[in-house]
TrEMBL record:
<comment type="similarity">
    <text>Belongs to the WD repeat NOL10/ENP2 family.</text>
</comment>
<dbReference type="InterPro" id="IPR056551">
    <property type="entry name" value="Beta-prop_NOL10_N"/>
</dbReference>
<dbReference type="GO" id="GO:0030686">
    <property type="term" value="C:90S preribosome"/>
</dbReference>
<protein>
    <recommendedName>
        <fullName>Nucleolar protein 10</fullName>
    </recommendedName>
</protein>
<feature type="domain" description="Nucleolar protein 10-like second">
    <location>
        <begin position="348"/>
        <end position="396"/>
    </location>
</feature>
<keyword id="KW-0539">Nucleus</keyword>
<dbReference type="Pfam" id="PF08159">
    <property type="entry name" value="NUC153"/>
</dbReference>
<feature type="compositionally biased region" description="Basic residues">
    <location>
        <begin position="643"/>
        <end position="667"/>
    </location>
</feature>
<feature type="region of interest" description="Disordered">
    <location>
        <begin position="507"/>
        <end position="536"/>
    </location>
</feature>
<dbReference type="InterPro" id="IPR012580">
    <property type="entry name" value="NUC153"/>
</dbReference>
<dbReference type="InterPro" id="IPR036322">
    <property type="entry name" value="WD40_repeat_dom_sf"/>
</dbReference>
<feature type="region of interest" description="Disordered">
    <location>
        <begin position="618"/>
        <end position="667"/>
    </location>
</feature>
<dbReference type="InterPro" id="IPR040382">
    <property type="entry name" value="NOL10/Enp2"/>
</dbReference>
<dbReference type="InterPro" id="IPR015943">
    <property type="entry name" value="WD40/YVTN_repeat-like_dom_sf"/>
</dbReference>
<dbReference type="Pfam" id="PF23098">
    <property type="entry name" value="Beta-prop_NOL10_N"/>
</dbReference>
<dbReference type="GO" id="GO:0000462">
    <property type="term" value="P:maturation of SSU-rRNA from tricistronic rRNA transcript (SSU-rRNA, 5.8S rRNA, LSU-rRNA)"/>
</dbReference>
<dbReference type="Pfam" id="PF23097">
    <property type="entry name" value="NOL10_2nd"/>
</dbReference>
Length: 667
């Protein structure tokens, strides 16, 4: 899909997969979805129905192409080919219509009382049996051209039906999970099978009542039933218990059941998978999972060809040579399959390499993201394999030499494994590993005396393998916790360190020792155990004294560092309209901001900047007065003095007029 048409044509000459593609029947597809597919009894015609628009297509196998196409008024639920060729066809449509087609096209249309889901044709009497959303089974006689008396069943609804090709027993699967068998001659029920109860076994898990979704007869005595919960039950008509119950383990309704007589197989399909299994043992023969959901499966008679109707335009054709030979109209498939077995298959994406973003960064190709050299796919990119090899050689030119050395080292280690091995200690936590080895040896001696089973070693346990490989898990013996919790570690560690030196010298010189260093006598060990109890308290005290001294030294060093550091002057910027008084004001503001809203409101009330009063409605009204800056306060005082002086002048002027004197006022 990434290539142009020209490159695709060039690729067809080189790509083996493209050259192996075979289009058996030209345009073997539907516009959107195919729902049912069937083969005529003479094997010459393949008919399929689908949408959209609802239509039927007939393909001629002798011409390997489409013969005709007819559009219908409504979608087809199912259809049946009554004649050996395509000359007589019956369609059951979703609008309760039953439509008859002859060789030239549409012939007749009628309706049934309830919505139909399936129908079967009874050849001796020319009756069509319709089952659907009703407790009745409707009978339409094609010879007389009229409906006959219907069969009254105990079921509320019926899903599928089938007629035995040998003795013409009519069977129908109900929504309650039962199968009712009727004799068309007497129109009486002759048997009842409770498949829902038989389908539930110890291994199966179901969420609801299993209903019957598929039904198929095989010969005179065998019958296969598919349920809506994904089980297939094989019955002998002489018994009410199933011979075998096969679960698809998907919980999806069984859509189709076919019998393959050459290998005694049953081919059952739900919407996700097609399973082929032995009808005697239930052993899986093979299974297929198409890319799209399955609607119907059709087995071409007396061959190994399988056709499926899918939730996609393309109808799939599978050829399995083990099931049988290829049909006579495509006998060349047998020769092709023999050639394919001789030639090895090439894998998909041979010319591309999948890389992640991290791989691109390691190769130095992260700048190519978004260009045509990288094709985004899932969580990474596809790139040309030649470009990948070139970039890898440039990024790490000695990769082959490292790979060669690693392979040589692995070969040498494989040969060394056959020799007598020394007990090698890991690179990380050597002292802990030595302690575990010593304890393991003591436990083995103890278990031999008591005749007990040896417990597994921590060194051999995969759960603790990282503890002796990753340096992050290295035990820090200088930490405070280790020294207090392990006061006697110092004495024991000295002994282990001596052993470690001896083992390292032996490994360096390449000497092999069969026996480990001998331990001390039992009386010496007993004397040591008594001394350990006394020395434990003294060791703890010593460690605590050492820790206090270390803390004291650290404090002295910090004090010296503080004295050496010089305090630098800091400058603060004051906002416009504010005067600097002291640093206490900022501290007061910070304390005020930490107080709650209630405390701040009480403080504002005391200062007079807040006035709380009750309203007539019953609520409270709070009035705030903004604090004024020093500059605004001085300006207001000057304005106030100016107003007072003008008032005084007006009074003196009015006083002179009242006396009637004339004078001058100087300001």
């Amino acid at each position: 899909q990434w290539l142009s048409d020209r490159k695709k044509r060039a690729l067809q000459k080189k790509d083996v997969d493209i050259r192996r593609r075979i289009e058996l029947i030209q345009d073997f597809e539907m516009p959107t979805v195919s729902t049912k597919i069937k083969v005529s009894r003479d094997g010459q015609y393949i008919m399929a129905v689908g949408t959209y628009k609802p239509r039927v297509r007939c393909f001629d196998t002798y011409q390997l192409s489409q013969k005709f196409e007819r559009c219908l008024d409504s979608e087809v639920v199912t259809f049946e080919i009554l004649s050996d060729d395509y000359s007589k066809i019956v369609f059951l449509q979703c609008g309760r219509f039953v439509e008859f087609h002859s060789q030239h096209g549409h012939y007749y249309k009628t309706r049934i009382p309830k919505f139909g889901r399936d129908f079967s044709y009874h050849y001796p009497s020319c009756d069509l049996y319709f089952v659907g959303a009703s407790s009745e089974v409707y009978r339409l006689n094609l010879e007389q051209g009229r409906f006959l008396n219907s069969l009254q069943t105990e079921a509320s609804e019926s899903n599928v039906c089938d007629i035995n090709p040998v003795h013409f027993l009519f069977a129908m699967g109900t929504a309650e999970g039962k199968v009712e068998c009727w004799d068309p001659r007497t129109r009486n029920r002759v048997g009842l099978l409770d498949c829902a109860l038989s389908s539930v076994t110890a291994d199966t898990e179901i969420e609801g009542l299993p209903s019957i979704s598929a039904l198929k007869f095989d010969g005179a005595l065998n019958m296969a039933v598919g349920t809506s919960t994904g089980q297939v039950l094989l019955y002998d008509l002489r018994s009410s218990n199933p011979l075998i119950v096969k679960d698809h383990h998907y919980g999806l309704p069984i859509k189709s059941i076919q019998f393959q007589h050459q290998l005694d197989l049953i081919i059952s399909a739900d919407s996700r998978i097609i399973k082929m299994w032995n009808k005697d043992t239930g052993k899986i023969f093979t299974s297929m999972e198409p890319e799209h959901d399955i609607n119907d499966v059709c087995l071409y008679p007396n061959s190994g060809m399988l056709m499926t109707a899918n939730e996609a335009p393309k109808m799939n054709i599978y050829y399995i040579p083990v099931l049988g030979p290829a049909p006579k109209w495509c006998s060349f498939l047998d020769n092709l399959t023999e050639e394919l077995e001789e030639n090895p298959e090439s894998t998909v994406y041979d010319d591309y390499k999948f890389v992640t973003r991290k791989d691109l960064e390691n190769l130095g190709l992260a700048h190519l993201i978004g260009s045509s050299l990288l094709r985004a796919y899932m969580h990474g990119f596809f790139m040309d394999i030649r470009l990948y090899h070139k970039a890898k050689m440039m990024a790490n030119p000695f990769a082959y030499e490292e790979y060669r050395r690693e392979k040589i080292r692995q070969k040498i280690e494989e040969t060394r494994a056959q020799r007598v091995q020394l007990k090698k200690l890991p690179k990380v936590n050597k002292e802990l590993a030595l302690k575990l080895i010593e304890e393991e040896g003591e436990e083995q001696q103890f278990s031999k005396k008591r005749k007990q089973k040896n417990l597994p070693s921590l060194l051999k346990d995969d759960r603790f393998k990282v503890m002796f490989e990753n340096p992050d898990f290295q035990v820090d013996e200088q930490s405070e916790e280790f020294r207090l919790l392990n006061p006697l570690v110092s004495k024991i560690s000295e002994k282990r360190k001596r052993k470690l030196k001896i083992l390292e010298e032996l490994e360096a010189q390449g000497q092999e020792e069969e026996e480990e260093p001998e331990g001390k006598a039992s009386d010496a060990e007993s004397s040591e155990s008594s001394d350990d109890e006394k020395g434990w308290v003294e060791e703890v005290r010593k460690q605590r004294k050492l820790l206090r001294q270390e803390e004291k030294l650290k404090r002295q060093e910090r004090f010296k560092e503080d004295q050496q550091t010089l305090l630098k002057p800091q400058f603060f910027e004051i906002k416009e309209g504010e005067e600097f008084r002291s640093f206490k004001d900022s501290a007061k503001k910070q304390k005020l901001m930490k107080k709650t809203l209630e405390d701040r409101l009480k403080l504002e009330e005391k200062l007079g900047t807040l006035n709380v009063s009750d309203t007539t409605v019953g609520s409270k009204q709070a009035t705030f007065k903004l604090k004024k800056s020093e500059q605004q306060r001085k300006q207001q005082e000057a304005e106030k003095r100016h107003r007072q002086e003008r008032k005084a002048l007006r009074r003196s002027a009015s006083h002179l007029k009242s006396r009637g004197g004339r004078g001058r006022l100087f300001h």
